[in-house]
Amino acid sequence: MREQQNTIIITGAAGGIGTAFAHHFAQQHANLMLVDLSESALGALKESVLAGGDVKESALQTCVADVSQAEQVREFVSQTKQAFGGVNGFLNNAGIEGTAAAITDYPQETFEQVMAVNVTGVWLGMKYVVPLMKESGGGSIVITSSVGGVMGSPGLSAYVTSKHAVIGIMRTAALECAADNIRVNTIHPGMVDTGMAARIAENTGIGVEVFEEQVKAGTPLGRYAQPEDIVGMVSFLLSDAAAYCTGQQYFVDGGMGAA
Ligand code: NAD
Questions:
Q1: What is residue 254's predicted lDDT score, i.e. its pLDDT?
Q2: Which of 159, 224, 244, 250 is catalytic?
Q3: C-beta of 16 in contact with ligand 1 (< 6 A)
């Protein structure tokens, strides 16, 4: 792998996929700004990353922030500048799944909450991280969409809508930012073995085991992804090996989309 970006902001860092990103990029000796909702979860993540011994404490910053709140997004960007002087990697990854119900029964409040985090939150991340990345000479931004960003899923209207929407943010930002040497792409994981996947299985009400069997049957590789399975693609997109890659969707779905 060629040279990686060396200061990276990760939102949703304390979640399943964010944690795998944090460990991987710490092993690459990047400076990390880890953003999530809970101080204790971020503290535990920091401890476990430090225990890996690959990174100094000063290279690991945490910031409690809700990505749907502009002033909190500005705050983690400002703390990144203060700690590291700039940023050249951004994993715009925080997300929530909402509930599972047909559109006719889906609570509007939940729909709006999912939009606030998964769409407004991603957009605010672009709005406030991009200026610092420009100042820093450019970089690479990866937005975590989903296979749900390109296909429907009954019961998950809010989630699916939000994951389609971020492709629009990605394409627009890729066009707006290319001249500033900033690349922007989406990744589209299939079902990944994290707390979110467990909650989705629970929410569907068909039984966790039945749901998991259905997902595996629809996945040619026959299993859920582990969070570490998503890391390789992101590592590539943040690296100079992806210097000509922008404005695109990258699937890590065990073959799900081939059907
Ligand atoms: P997760 O629930 O384990 O982690 C999500 C993290 O985001 C949590 O730590 C949570 O606290 C944080 N978060 C939620 N709302 C936030 C907010 N308003 N501000 C800041 N942080 C917030 O889920 P995950 O599987 O690690 O998901 C990470 C990303 O991957 C999400 O965008 C998700 O939609 C996407 N994704 C997940 C799967 C899957 O099957 N798990 C598949 C495709 C895409």
A1: 98
A2: 159
A3: yes
List, for residues 122-180, the tens digit of each pLDDT value. 999 999 999 999 999 999 999 999 999 999 999 999 999 999 999 999 999 999 999 99
Which tens digit of pLDDT belongs to each residue from 184-194?
999 999 999 99
* Tokens 């590291």, located at residue: 84
Single-letter amino acid, residue 44: A
Which residue among 11, 17, 163, 203 has the greatest number of ligand 1 atoms within 8 angstroms of its CB, and so is best to mutate?
17
CB 116 within 8 A of CB 67: no
**Residues 211, 229, 26, 130: is their CA dihedral positive or negative?**
negative
Atom of ligand 1 nearest to the CA of 117: 18
Residue to probe by mutation, ligand 1, list 24, 92, 96, 224, most atoms within 8 Å of CB? 96
Answering whether pTM is above 0.85, one says yes
pLDDT-based confidence at 259, cuts 50/70/90?
confident
The verdict on whether 159 is a catalytic residue reads yes
| Alpha-carbon gap, residue 54 to 80, rounded angstroms | 20
Do 54 and 29 meet the contact criterion of CB atoms below 8 Å apart? yes
**If you compute the radius of gyration of the chain from its CA atoms, what whole number of angstroms results?**
17
pLDDT in tens, 194-217: 999 999 999 998 989 999 999 999
